[in-house]
TrEMBL record:
Residues 181-313 form the GGDEF domain. The lineage of its organism: Bacteria, Pseudomonadati, Pseudomonadota, Betaproteobacteria, Burkholderiales. It comes from the Bacteria. NCBIfam families: GGDEF. This is diguanylate cyclase. Residues 13-57 form the PAS domain. PROSITE patterns: GGDEF (PS50887), PAS (PS50112). It is an enzyme of class 2 (transferase). GO terms for biological process: cell adhesion involved in single-species biofilm formation; negative regulation of bacterial-type flagellum-dependent cell motility; regulation of DNA-templated transcription. It comes from Trinickia violacea. It catalyses: 2 GTP = 3',3'-c-di-GMP + 2 diphosphate. One of its GO terms (cellular component) is plasma membrane.
Length: 313
């Protein structure tokens, strides 16, 4: 390397730019190594130039990197690799907090052919530090996922809201139309819930709803979809479940809700539930029909005295 006073303006630019630049020949020997590469690798140019890049950095993804370089030598065209495709080429440290979720500097890499006449004699590789960009994009993606999750959740109970439940029911209905099999729907609500609100207040009523949702949520399967339809009414989608099996679940839910009063603010609040069940069957023309069937069974349970389970027939 020349002394700083002997560097040309172009050499000074290459040395001072805020991204890595190095050049390799057809034998993968390093011909140039700028200040960025030196500072982040801890290897001065004197140790690297004239030697194989793989001897100095055995941790490089040799197969991928070789293939990338050889394509540039053969085709004579630029190549690019985004951090989204491969997070980094060199394991350089970054200056982000460890909470950023990345272990090493995230890098975009450009591979530029250096021509002598029509022959590619070397490849110039640039390394751009895009750690901040990658972290911000990950944070945005995580935020979108959380917002989507919030959009699908009932604000009071934390379980699925009606929109999400009906979307899952529609998907299950379409699957059933195509492949057959069984699936069932349960609708249930808390008996005389208005009386609970009137007697104990809405704060207690909200607590009762949250506790009931938690109890039922712990009692159902992971593949089931449990949602709040609104007010004190809830719904449960049971894939691969016959009506007979669904009514066993309905009784389990009814007992889960009714066997233990809810203790809140020093008050023991007795709660019971009525449940209606319906199952996919020939002639069901839309998933909404199942909701109507289960709703009819639910109101039949209420007319029969509440705190019971009734199947639609």
């Amino acid at each position: 390397m020349n002394a700083p006073s002997e560097l040309s303006l172009s050499d000074l630019v290459i040395e001072r730019v805020g991204f890595g630049i190095f050049v390799v020949d057809r034998d993968f020997n390093v011909l140039m190594w700028n200040r960025f590469m030196q500072d982040h690798s801890g290897r001065p140019a004197a140790e690297v130039v004239g030697k194989s890049i793989f001897d100095n950095f055995p941790e490089l993804p040799r197969v991928w990197f070789t293939r990338k370089l050889e394509s540039v030598f053969q085709l004579g065209s630029f190549a690019f690799s985004s951090w989204e495709q491969r997070p980094y080429l060199f394991k350089f440290e970054h200056d982000r907090p460890i909470t950023g979720g990345v272990d090493f500097m995230q890098q975009d890499c450009t591979f530029m052919p250096l021509m002598r006449g029509r022959e590619v004699v070397a490849v110039c590789v640039t390394i751009s530090d895009v750690t901040n960009v990658s972290v911000m994009q990950r944070e945005r993606e995580e935020a979108v996922v959380k917002l989507q999750e919030y959009a699908n959740r009932d604000g009071l109970t934390g379980i699925a809201n009606r929109r999400f439940f009906e979307a899952r029911l529609r998907d299950e209905y379409l699957r059933w139309q195509r492949y057959g099999g069984d699936f069932s729907v349960l609708l249930f609500d808390l008996d005389h819930f208005k009386t609970i609100n009137d007697e104990f207040g809405h704060v207690v009523g909200d607590t009762v709803l949250r506790v009931m949702a938690q109890r039922v949520g712990e009692a159902v399967r992971a593949q089931d979809t449990f949602g709040r339809f609104g007010g004190e009414e809830f719904a449960l989608l049971l894939p691969c479940t016959t009506l007979q099996e669904a009514m066993v679940v309905a009784e389990k839910i009814r007992k889960t809700i009714g066997d233990t009063p809810v203790d809140v603010e020093g008050v023991s609040v007795p709660v019971t539930a009525s449940v209606g069940g319906a199952a996919a069957r020939a002639g069901v023309s839309a998933y909404e029909v199942l909701i109507n069937d289960a709703d009819a069974a639910l109101y039949s349970a209420k007319r029969q005295g509440r705190n019971r389970s009734v199947a639609f027939t």
